[in-house]
Amino acid sequence: MIRVTDLRKHFGPTQILKGISFEVAPQTVVGVIGSSGSGKTTLLRCLNGLERINSGTVECGKVRLEAKLSKAEYRHRVRDLRREVGTVFQHFYLFPHLSVLANITEAPVHVLRRDRKSAETEAYELLESVGLKTAAQRYPESLSGGEQQRVAIARALAMRPAVLLFDEPTSALDPKRTVSLRTMLRGFVTRGHTMIIISHSIGFLNGLADKLIYMDSGEIVEQGPAEQILNDASDARTRDFVSQAS
Amino acid sequence: MRRELNRAFHTALLITVSFNAVAAQQALRWGADPSGGAPYVFTDPAHPDQYIGYEKEMVDLLAAAMGRHPEFVPSDWETLVSALQRNSFDVIVNGLEPTGDRAQQIIFSKPYYIFQLQLTVRKDENRIHSLSDCSKHTVATLGNTAASRMLQQQNIPFRSYEDPPGAYRDLELKRIDAVLMDVPAEAFYARNNPKLKPAGPPFFRGLYVIGLRKGDDKLKAEVDAAIDKIIIDGSLEQILKKWGLWNDAQVEFQTSIRQGVKAELGHIDMTTATFNWRDALLRLTRAAIVTVLIAFGSMLIAVVLGLPLAVGQSNGPKIVRSFCTVYVEFFRGTPVLVQLLFLYFGLPAIGIAMPGWLTALVGLGLNYAAYESQVYRAALEAIPKGQWEAAYSLGMNPVLAFRRIILPQAFRIALPAMTNDFVSLFKDTSVAFAISVWELATAYRELANASGQFLLLGVAVSIFYLAMSLPMAHLARRLEDRLRNRVPETVDLEEVAA
Q1: How would residue B492 be classed by pLDDT, with cut points 50, 70 and 90?
Q2: What was the pLDDT predicted at B269?
Q3: Residue ranges of chain B that CATH labels 1.10.3720.10
Q4: Residue limits of CATH 3.40.190.10 in chain B
Q5: Cα–Cα 20 to 30 A to B8, which of A196, B22, B357, B479?
Q6: Is the distance from CB of B118 to CB of B205 less than 8 angstroms?
Q7: In angstroms, what is the C-alpha Rg of chain A?
Q8: Is A99's Cβ below 8 Å from some Cβ in B?
Q9: pLDDT tens by residue, A7-49
Q10: Is B106 helix (H, G, I), strand (E, B) or coil?
């Protein structure tokens, strides 16, 4: 589903990503772990086109981003990429001037040009699936952090992406909510979605992620099946991180 | 040594004595409006530090006859009477007509000149031959003069100007169709203009007198005697001849003075200011409507033009960015009054002659666009970057993200500042008086000067302003509340703007 090859990204002289390569199989969950400053978030921003890559390739479905593409062509492909990839940001970035319902229907109606009626019907279904059907007419600022996150998830799903990207999904949640979020995400995989989740929380990814990638200083230290990384990592740094974080 | 000391002492004494002689001579402080004041009194183009004019020369003679030394106090035509009452000077000598309303406020000397009125039109004009053809055309004149009162009495639409050159220039520029003016001014400013021609012969016979404060009867007696003297000894006649103002009416008038016959002047006309409260309120209402139209029109320009300026200044290519910055700094850094004067008087030089109301509307609009752009810019920059990124991640292009996500949020932030600007724009419409637009401030000035009712009219005008600005402030508050309370439907920018 996703293949990243020798991805590099720098801001000025600072190397943020120093040759990242990994693959994500369809309908699997990949967790990206690592301490702050390891380049996880920049990686995620490269995967949805918010940052332009400096070298290497990002392939997702039929879309292929290459560093050497012209500006116009790159922009064109990013547009295609964003049809495949939905993002749930750490701080959600709901649109405060729109109701919950309008937050969800905004992009389907104006980007996909779907008619408002069917977009709303689907939005209600999505809200029901995240357990927020009654909140449709409310505004984001009246919602709790967990509720805002579920609206953000519904908003991303409304564009029917194959892949969902999550940036630190547990940072605003209490332990109980964390468990129910994990259950919900598991359900999305069964329904055909592929996910990349960036998280500090080993506990959250344990039992959710099929594969784990441990990053440090812009490099992938180790990647492999979740079981192996958590219990039997070959690199000492990975073992340190796992033992400290769990 | 001693002799030298002695001489020095004598010299000093002599200087002191002659100085005392000058100081002992009382001043005759006279007030007049020298701006565009030819041929009465105006700045000498050859020596810009001096004033010349037939009335200047006449006052010199009068003062000499009275044993005083003349002292000119440059003033403003519209406020001459109140300035006299405030003791800014002792007499008004400025082609003043002894009207009934002025007689309630000041006293008059004997007349010194018989004036007539002349209607002037463009050379190619073939519709207007006399004042009676003017009922469908706008006639320009000076405010608070015999001409303006006559036009008002005959219900002929007219516009008041500050000075004759402005009126004749706008006649040339076709902003108006005719000018009615006292013959002395007409002779100086229009008669030799190849683009203009007189419409019919001069008409009306009115008097010029000198205005004095009530109770100043001793000075009035002095002035009257001096007027008689300079008429009888022929020195006034020489001045008038020198300035090309000597005509049959003057011959008749001066002869009658010389012969001591006062009443045999022939027919004399006198205009009266028709001031009554009903008329005044009606005219204020008209002015209020003009004010509202200018305010709304220019705010529309400002709101619409401010947006591309704001976006251009923040996100445009370098050249656009520089242009927007220059625009904003220019319009914020120079007085709006100067901008209006430039648009009104400067632009016709390159062939763009807008009528006054349009000039005010466009000028204020361009000016406030600079301010609105900064309000927008601050509001746009206050929207978190994450809002853009969320919109992009949902597949929106920059234009769609801006229109649907960023702009409505920025609008909500900008609204209080925009409301503020609108109220201040509303009051700034008063600068339009500088280009003779009949809005509230102009109306106040002219009506109050004509009637002396500064206080009551001031209250009335303030009520007009408040009656318009308070509902607007209320409306803006309701709009802000509505946006804050987030009524369930999505707020459409177009709907809010309308």
Answers
A1: very low
A2: 73
A3: 277-497
A4: 1-273
A5: B22
A6: no
A7: 18
A8: yes
A9: 999 999 999 999 999 999 999 999 999 988 899 999 999 999 9
A10: strand
With 60 as the cut, is the pLDDT of residue A200 above it?
Answer: yes
Instruction: Identify the pLDDT of residue B272.
Output: 67
Enumerate chain B positions whose Cβ falls within 8 A of a Cβ in A. Answer: 384, 386-387, 389-397, 400, 404-405, 408-409, 412, 486, 488, 490-491
Q: Which residue has the tokens 């996910």?
A: A195
What average pLDDT does the segment B391-405 reach?
94
Three-class SS state of B333:
helix
Q: Which of A93, A139, A155 sits opposite B486 (nearest CB)?
A: A139
- Prior bond of B74 cis (ω within 30°): no
Domain CATH for A157: 3.40.50.300
B206 φ, ψ (degrees, to nearest 5): -125, 170
Q: Which residue of B has its CA nearest to A139?
A: B486
**CA B393 – CA B401 distance, rounded (Å):** 10
* Domain count across chain A: 1
Lowest mean pLDDT: which of B201-205, B310-314, B325-329, B451-455? B451-455
Q: What is the pLDDT of residue A39?
A: 92
Fold of B277-497: MetI-like fold (1.10.3720)
Residue B287 CA to residue B360 CA, distance in Å, equals 14
Residue with token string 């009949």: B438
Residue A196: domain span = 2-245
Amino acid at B140: A
Question: B174 near B353, Cβ under 8 Å?
Answer: yes
pLDDT tier for residue B40 given thresholds of 50, 70 and 90: very high
Residue among A40, A136, A160, A97 nearest A150 (CA): A136
Burial B52-64 (b: 16+ CB within 10 A, else e): bbbbbbbbbbbbb
| pLDDT tens figures, B249-258 | 899 888 888 8
Q: Structure tokens of B455?
A: 């206080």
pLDDT digits (tens, 9 = 90+) for A49-99: 999 999 999 999 899 999 999 999 999 999 999 999 999 999 999 999 999
Residue B369: how many other CB atoms lie within 10 Å: 24
Residue with the two structure tokens 């055909």: A192
Residues of B in contact with A96 (CB under 8 A): 409
The whole-angstrom distance between B296's CA and the closest CA on chain A is 27
- Pick A111's closest partner by Cβ from B386, B396, B491: B396
